[in-house]
Recover the amino acids of this structure.
């Protein structure tokens, strides 16, 4: 078999493996911060420079007593922008960003964040899986 055929085969397999449930390449990170009295956090956010942090669109939602507040409804972000989505909750749940197929566990009384590049245009639901509650719609355009 030629080297070109081997390389094409390897790239095809790599594309299938990395494709997963997402729709395109995204840069992401998820962090979880437990309640202040907890012993540890699940993961720490990646360090960032001040200029990079200034260009990140932060979307923050709070769930308390079954009520949702903060950046709710339809939230618009420019295509190609860096986004950090943070949910604070008084009960444990799982945040899910559809379309980008990003998830993060939220501890009771804590928060979780998902960081990604908004490189897929469209409208995407952000929900809590366990309580089956929509938090917002992310419009990327």
């Amino acid at each position: 078999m030629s080297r070109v055929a081997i390389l094409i085969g390897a790239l095809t397999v790599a594309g299938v493996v990395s494709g997963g449930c997402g729709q395109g390449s995204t840069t992401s990170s998820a962090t979880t911060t437990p309640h202040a009295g907890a012993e540890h956090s699940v993961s720490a956010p990646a360090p960032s420079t001040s200029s990079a942090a200034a260009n990140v669109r932060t979307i923050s939602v709070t769930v308390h007593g079954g009520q949702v507040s903060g950046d709710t409804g339809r939230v618009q972000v420019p295509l190609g922008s860096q986004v950090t989505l943070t949910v604070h909750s008084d009960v444990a749940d799982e945040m899910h960003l559809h379309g980008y197929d990003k998830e993060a566990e939220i501890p009771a009384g804590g928060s979780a964040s998902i960081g990604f590049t908004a490189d897929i245009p469209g409208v995407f639901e952000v929900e809590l899986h366990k309580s089956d509650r929509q938090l917002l719609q992310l419009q990327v355009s």
About this structure: The beta strands are 28-33, 56-64, 67-70, 73-77, 82-89, 93-97, 102-106, 110-117, 122-128, 133-140. Confidence is low (pLDDT under 50) at residues 1-29, 32-50. The CA atoms of residues 90 and 129 lie 15 Å apart.
